[in-house]
């Protein structure tokens, strides 16, 4: 097979990206496209607007929603430590073992997946002009040929650039015409005009309330921002997509609520983001980790992930801050004498944007001005649910409700 590889931030994915994919497939040079949303792009390290998992799942939903044939989204960069240099990514992606298993997992028959493949790196002709300045460009060309799109109105001298790359690096460059629109991710998020964003991506952005004031992380330290991005990548290996996006949403909302109610935004961001980090570990492992943090205080299977998450974050990430760890531990039950941070994470878990199990509008509105009132409304909903199901309310929740004068 002839395989095109298209890397980028896709922050967000827009119609220009889709046009690139479709035009590359129409060019006749390739049979399929593998799209790789970046994890640690050397040019945009920690400067993307969204952490990597959001962009990966946005692209997956877009490809599926548009029914793009012969286009596959790849998470290869999540297995790479450090900066995702193109040469490093290609060394892994193009290896016989990796590429055959990837293609098979995407529905390609084994015989075809295991045959010899030819690889092409897809880029715009404007980017082609900078290729010789990339990290180890000669090594990149050991794995791929370059497939460059000439954009409408682009005056790049592609023939001159091709000749330079061939002379200096010995690489092959193929050119195709791009039938697309002129737009940029940064222009879209700056203007707030999402008319050039594919509908599946627009729906995804709305569902998770992305590219809003709350996701700008203003007032959060650079260190906490980097940590947020890194824990998002770390949790990718332990959580499915829906759960991972939920726990990151809670991080964003916790940081916002911390701003509203005068709490430490850095701590709120990290505590919220990590609150469900142990949710999908094997129950036996959750039980072991939970006992380390809280003894036998939590025994119900649905609750184990809370104290387990505190231990997991401490042991795996080196987080020692007890405020953060306690906020993770008690996010399901609450407890007596809760700190503002604990209340914020407890509340954010119940009302983050993608939650839709009931009409949360009144609680969300209350949460913007009255933390105690929003907590009472949430606790009342939890109490009513448990009563209707004939379940016992956890002693820690009863203590929380007593403090809330319920």
Keywords:
single chain; 406 residues; alpha/beta; Rossmann fold; Hypothetical protein af1432; 2 domains; 52% helix; 8% strand
What this model shows, in words?
- The protein has helices at about 15-25, 50-65, 85-95, 95-105, 110-115, 125-130, 135-145, 160-170, 185-190, 200-205, 220-235, 240-260, 265-275, 285-295, 305-315, 320-330, 340-350, 360-365, 370-390, 395-405, and strands at about 1-10, 30-35, 70-75, 120-125, 145-150, 175.
- The chain has a six-stranded parallel β-sheet with strand order 3-2-1-4-5-6, sandwiched between helices.
- It folds into two domains: about 1-200, Rossmann fold; about 220-405, Orthogonal Bundle (Hypothetical protein af1432).
- With about 400 residues, the chain is α/β, with parallel strands linked by helices.
- Helix 13 crosses helix 17 (about 340-350).
- The model has no long low-confidence stretch (mean pLDDT about 95).
- Helices cover about 50% and strands about 10% of the residues.
- The protein starts with a strand and ends with a helix.
């Amino acid at each position: 097979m002839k395989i095109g590889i298209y890397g980028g931030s896709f922050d967000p994915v827009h119609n220009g990206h889709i046009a690139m994919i479709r035009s590359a497939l129409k060019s006749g040079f390739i049979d399929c496209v593998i799209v790789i949303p970046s994890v640690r792009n050397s040019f945009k390290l920690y400067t993307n607007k969204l952490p990597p998992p959001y962009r990966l799942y946005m692209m997956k939903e877009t490809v599926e929603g548009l029914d793009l044939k012969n286009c596959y989204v790849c998470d290869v960069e999540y297995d790479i430590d450090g900066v995702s240099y193109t040469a490093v990514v290609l060394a892994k992606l193009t290896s016989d073992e990796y590429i055959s298993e990837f293609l098979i997992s995407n529905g390609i028959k084994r015989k075809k997946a295991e045959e010899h493949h030819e690889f092409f790196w897809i880029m715009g002709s404007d980017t082609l002009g900078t290729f010789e300045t990339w990290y180890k460009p000669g090594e990149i060309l050991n794995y791929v040929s370059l497939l460059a799109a000439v954009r409408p109105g682009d005056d790049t001298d592609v023939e001159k650039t091709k000749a330079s790359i061939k002379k200096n690096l010995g690489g092959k460059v193929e050119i195709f015409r791009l039938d697309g629109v002129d737009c940029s991710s940064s222009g879209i998020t700056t203007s707030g005009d999402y008319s050039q964003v594919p509908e599946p991506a627009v729906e995804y952005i709305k569902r998770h309330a992305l590219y809003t004031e709350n996701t700008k992380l203003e007032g959060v330290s650079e260190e906490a921002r980097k940590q947020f991005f890194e824990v998002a990548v770390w949790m990718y290996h332990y959580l499915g997509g829906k759960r991972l996006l939920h726990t990151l949403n809670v991080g964003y909302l916790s940081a916002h609520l911390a701003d509203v109610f005068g709490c430490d935004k850095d701590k709120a961001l990290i505590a919220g983001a990590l609150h469900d980090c142990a949710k999908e570990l094997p129950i036996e492992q959750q039980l072991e980790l939970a006992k380390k943090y809280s003894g036998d205080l939590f025994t119900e299977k649905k609750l184990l992930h809370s104290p387990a998450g505190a231990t997991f974050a401490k042991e795996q990430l080196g987080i020692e801050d007890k405020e953060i760890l306690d906020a993770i531990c008690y996010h399901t039950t609450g407890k007596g004498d809760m700190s503002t941070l604990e209340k914020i994470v407890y509340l954010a878990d119940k009302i983050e944007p993608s939650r839709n199990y009931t009409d949360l509008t009144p609680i969300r509105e209350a949460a913007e001005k009255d933390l105690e009132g929003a907590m009472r409304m949430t606790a009342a909903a939890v109490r009513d649910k448990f009563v209707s199901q004939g379940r016992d309310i956890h002693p820690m929740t009863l203590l929380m409700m007593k403090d809330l004068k319920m």
